[in-house]
Design goal:
6-stranded antiparallel beta sheet; globular
Length: 177
């Protein structure tokens, strides 16, 4: 069984790759700013990954309701608007519960742009705000669609380092149970 505390730390540090629409990286606040990956709101690969996550969300909900023996960790990524316009920060949440339409979960990232939330806050999210989901099934990552997009943009050396630190089996594409 995976050490969930270690996974939470890795999730916070390595997968804090948050999305934000058109912001200057020079003005990043302190905190998890080093874990934020800036992505344009019209990025076709990222938008396709979010659509895949949304399209397969029922699979995540079913697994959350009745986990297989090796499924030890469930997390969702959600969109948190801030400021004016389309600006949003996408952050990971853990300790997930769902009634099928809404999700209650604990914020696993320290927000960089969203000023009214803090790491550890319990929030309620409507399903249309979900931008990704993941399940740890033994040592395999299921879901994680946006993770694969961001990982594909790393150099070969960065990808090797990410994979070694992440500690889960990652294939060439997201796996849906």
């Amino acid at each position: 069984m995976r050490n969930i505390t270690l996974l939470s730390v890795l999730l916070s540090l390595l997968l804090g790759l948050s999305l934000a629409a058109c912001q200057s990286t020079e003005l990043l606040p302190a905190g998890e700013a080093g874990n934020v990956e800036m992505v344009e709101s019209d990025d076709p690969e990222m938008n396709a990954a979010i659509q895949q996550a949304q399209a397969s969300l029922e699979v995540f909900i079913a697994a959350l309701a009745s986990p297989a023996p090796g499924q030890t960790y469930f997390s969702i990524k959600a969109r948190f608007p801030y400021g004016s316009g389309d600006a949003a920060e996408h952050m990971w949440l853990e300790d997930v519960a769902s009634d099928g339409e809404r999700f209650e979960a604990t914020l696993a990232n320290a927000p960089v742009y969203v000023s009214d939330l803090h790491i550890g806050d319990r929030v309620t999210i409507e399903r249309e705000r979900i931008s990704d989901w993941m399940i740890v099934d033994d040592d395999r990552l299921l879901g994680g669609f946006t993770i694969y997009v961001l990982r594909s943009r790393l150099s070969e050396e960065e990808r090797r380092q990410f994979d070694a630190e992440f500690g889960l089996e990652l294939g060439g594409a997201p796996v849906v149970p």
